[in-house]
Write a structure and sequence with these properties.
The chain is an alpha+beta fold and about 300 residues long. Helices cover about 30% and strands about 15% of the residues. It has seven helices and ten strands. A hairpin with an 8-residue loop joins strand 9 (about 275-280) and strand 10. This is Ribosomal protein L9 domain-containing protein. Belongs to the bacterial ribosomal protein bL9 family. One of its GO terms (cellular component) is ribonucleoprotein complex.
């Protein structure tokens, strides 16, 4: 094996020859030991790339979720199928950022829509299946819990106990128009004396014998009906479990009208004036009704 030196560069002294020779042998040893060895390089870990995107469903999708749910979907399905067909919509970046701050997880609802595929077992199919297997069948009857009905006497007692003696209602009054003053009659001058005194006494007697015109009741805007009274009675009965079972309808309540009562109209169903009235509450099957006072007050504006 010839040395890799040119003749011009061969040193003349022994020390130089020795240094050159050692350097040549070291390079040859390093080259031989490196043949056939595999050099492992440090590889970077691959970054995790998301394969799904969170979307909001615009309609219920089987095995994914109901309308409005946020579920993860692959990019291809969303791009090619769902978004063109308006099945779902992309979520904006602010919405995704807000959901990440709340640590909200996006998961599919695999059970959604699965109940529709289950076979429904009707009574006819159940009977045929039982007859095939040999199991005796009985008709299924759903029994609803029956509440004990209150007797009319007990209902009247509960109304007497829980309904207050007076029910107050407030309505805005209609301002009354002032009546025009009656023109004064000119009294003829009869002078003085006994004839004048007799004429004055007769005039006073005529004025005293005239009937006194009753004051007109003050009208109100709207009215107080038997339905309003019924609602107040039911609200009072609802404070007790037993009295809440008393069955009343609007026909069971009526205003008692009389010659001295002013303001009751429409066959005892409506009151359109301010004042005190009497109402009768009667239960079907009961002999006598319960009477209560109703006061319609003028609401101060």
């Amino acid at each position: 094996m010839s040395l890799p030196f040119r003749s011009r560069t061969i040193p003349q002294c022994s020390a130089c020859i020795r240094s050159y020779a050692f350097a040549a042998f070291d390079e040859l040893h390093i080259a031989n030991t490196g043949i056939g060895q595999q050099v492992r390089r440090s590889s970077k870990k691959k970054a995790i790339v998301a394969t799904t995107v969170p979307v909001r469903l615009l309609k219920g999708v089987k095995s994914f979720g109901r309308k409005g749910a946020i579920v993860p979907v692959s990019f291809g399905r969303m791009r090619n199928e769902w978004f063109p067909r308006r099945i779902a919509e992309y979520m904006t970046l602010p919405e995704q950022r807000a959901l990440r701050l709340k640590n909200t997880t996006f998961e599919r609802d695999f059970q959604y829509g699965a109940e529709e595929d289950l076979p429904t077992l009707t009574s006819t199919s159940a009977q045929s299946l039982a007859s095939t297997v040999g199991i005796p069948t009985q008709p299924f009857i759903r029994r609803t819990p029956e509440l004990e009905r209150l007797s009319p006497e007990r209902s009247m007692q509960l109304i007497e106990i829980f309904v207050p003696q007076r029910l107050d209602f407030y309505r805005q009054p209609i301002p009354a128009e002032p009546e025009p003053a009656a023109p004064k009659r000119a009294t003829p001058s009869i002078g003085t004396g006994i004839a004048a005194e007799l004429f004055a006494a007769r005039a006073q007697a005529e004025e005293a014998s005239k009937p006194v015109k009753p004051a007109a009741a003050q009208a109100i805007y709207g009215s107080v009906s038997t339905q309003n009274v019924l609602d107040a009675v039911k609200a009072a009965l609802a404070t007790n479990d037993e009295s809440a079972r008393v069955g009343l309808v609007e026909e069971d309540v009526r205003f008692i009208a009389g010659p001295e009562v002013v303001g009751v109209e429409e066959a005892g169903r409506v009151v359109k004036h301010v004042g005190d009235f009497t109402v009768e509450i009667r239960v079907r099957g009961g002999e006598e009704g319960v009477k209560r006072h109703v006061r319609v007050n003028a609401q101060e504006v």
